[in-house]
């Protein structure tokens, strides 16, 4: 079955810096890759997703890139702000199965 | 105001007791899911349901049971057979079909002593 690895487990940056979180997946049939942001004590919120027919997607300060050949995808946050501090999860899914397999999460801390 | 609600937010039980966690959605989504989250780990799928009166086991179904009698409701029962039930439980829903986006509720933190 699918296995998703996520790095780093923690990431500390200064406000205004960029942050990059990387994930790799094992099942070449996976074709949907969402990213979630989870604040303390709350449920995860979908922040951006990408399907395998595109290599990059951007939404304001966040972007996701996908390399199908290498089976990895990354989340990029530019001009980080303290409110970006949270745990971020990547996930992968195979079309038709609707089952998401999650990475283990990255705790991002943005210091003012 | 559409969304997913889970209740209660905190739940305490004695070991050996069954407990049922509530999940309700008014998004008219066909598919619903239950995940378990432990510290330092990702979300692990317990059960999922793609349609009313049908559900499938996820990766860690042992010690749990579910029902899907109504489209908007997907309760999870944590039975006494679950060896380590203390965790944060998250419910999610999606449109189903090609609508993969899963939307999560606020979660229930269960503590069993």
What does this structure look like?
The complex is a heterodimer of chains A (112) and B (113). Helices cover 0% and strands 59% of the residues of chain A. Chain A is built from no helices and eleven strands. Chain A has strands spanning 4-7, 10-14, 19-25, 30-38, 45-51, 56-59, 62-67, 72-77, 86-94, 100-102, 106-111. Chain B is mainly β and 113 residues long. In chain B, strands 2, 4, 5, 6, 9, 10 and 11 form a seven-stranded mixed beta sheet that branches. In chain B, β5 and β6 form a beta hairpin. At the A-B interface, β4 and β5 of A face β5, β9 and β10 of B.
Write the layout of secondary structure elements.
The complex is a heterodimer of chains A (about 110) and B (about 110).
Chain A: E1 4-7, E2 10-14, E3 19-25, E4 30-38, E5 45-51, E6 56-59, E7 62-67, E8 72-77, E9 86-94, E10 100-102, E11 106-111
Chain B: E1 4-7, E2 10-13, E3 19-25, E4 31-37, E5 43-51, E6 54-57, E7 64-66, E8 76-78, E9 87-94, E10 103-104, E11 108-112
Parallel strand pairs in B: 2-11
Antiparallel strand pairs in B: 1-3, 3-8, 4-5, 4-9, 5-6, 7-8, 9-10, 9-11
Range of strand content of chain B:
over 45%
Oligomer type: heterodimer
Distance between the amino and carboxyl termini of chain A: 41 Å
- Structural classification of chain A: mainly beta
Number of strands of chain A: 11
Biggest sheet architecture of chain A: 6 strands, mixed
What keyword list fits this structure?
heterodimer; A: 112 residues; mainly beta; six-stranded mixed beta sheet; five-stranded antiparallel beta sheet; 0% helix; B: 113 residues; seven-stranded mixed beta sheet; globular
What can be said about this structure in brief?
The complex is a heterodimer of chains A (112) and B (113). Chain A has 112 residues and is mainly β. Chain A is built from no helices and 11 strands.
